[in-house]
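Protocol step 6 of 9: fold each sequence in the batch and record its structure tokens directly after the sequence line. For illustration, a two-sequence batch is reproduced in full.

Sequence one:
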Amino acid sequence: MIVIGTKVVQSYFAKIAGHRGIKAARSQYEVWLEIVGRAQWRNPEDVKASYPKVSILKAGRVVFNIKGNDFRLVSAVQYRAGVSAIRFFGTHAEYDKVDAETV
């Protein structure tokens, strides 16, 4: 998959630099980037095979847990194009304040 929208996450990390758990979150995000960058997902079932605890939503939205569910990453996946567009990254509490299907 081609991953776009990485600036969403980088901006978030810059904003909260120095907070507890950020180093681990960044490390796990980088692993996520590597896995998704090599993935060839054709449908939601392929995503589930890579990430069994992922949440598949409407409109191609997929919610990934980062750092043991401390952070959530919402991506809009376009399977035919092979693109995963990061739409949101934040804490679980911040995630609860957005509509993941439209963000």
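Sequence two, same batch, same settings:
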Amino acid sequence: MKLCVFQGTFNPIHRAHLKVAEYASGNYSFDKILFIPAYKPPHKDYDPDMSIHRLNMVNLAIKNNPNFECSDIEFHNEGKSYTYLTIKELYKDYNIDAKISFIIGTDAFEKIESWYKTDELKKLLDFIVFERTNDFYPDKYDYLRDKGYNFIFANMKYYDISSTQLRSRIANGETISDIVTEEVERYIKQNGLYKN
């Protein structure tokens, strides 16, 4: 199986996330794009109720795409959601062709050397790097290739959608139908999420 992983907090999942996954699915012939919401993000505040909501919203957002699947793999581990541990589990669960591919934004990729067990992680993954800034210079990342990280840059337009700004819009009662799917917007309203 050619598997591509899209891991994140997805707080909440929005249309830019979906466009990234659609690009990867359409351009690299993966059998599956596996969305993995982090249960306990290592560097962010943890709220168990919110973690369940984030998982539910991802399931709602991707339900109409047969190439997308949501995994609750990190919800079965009481520890922090370290990518290395999750990827090791996926190799046990799936019959992987070559290596797992991993979607990542330039903002996160710049910090990849600080990730848990990064030297072991880089041997397990091929990274697909998506631009997360308008002043993007591919040469800036050459040093990571020299250090053994295998990656390509996705040739996709940068979509400037911030989850922080999105949560602020929700808190201010603004419409968000242009940024999230109808199902996700309904879920947020029904559960009173992101209100101050």
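Proceed to step 7 once all outputs are recorded. Observation for sequence two: Strands lie at 3-8, 32-37, 68-70, 100-105, 125-130, 151-153.
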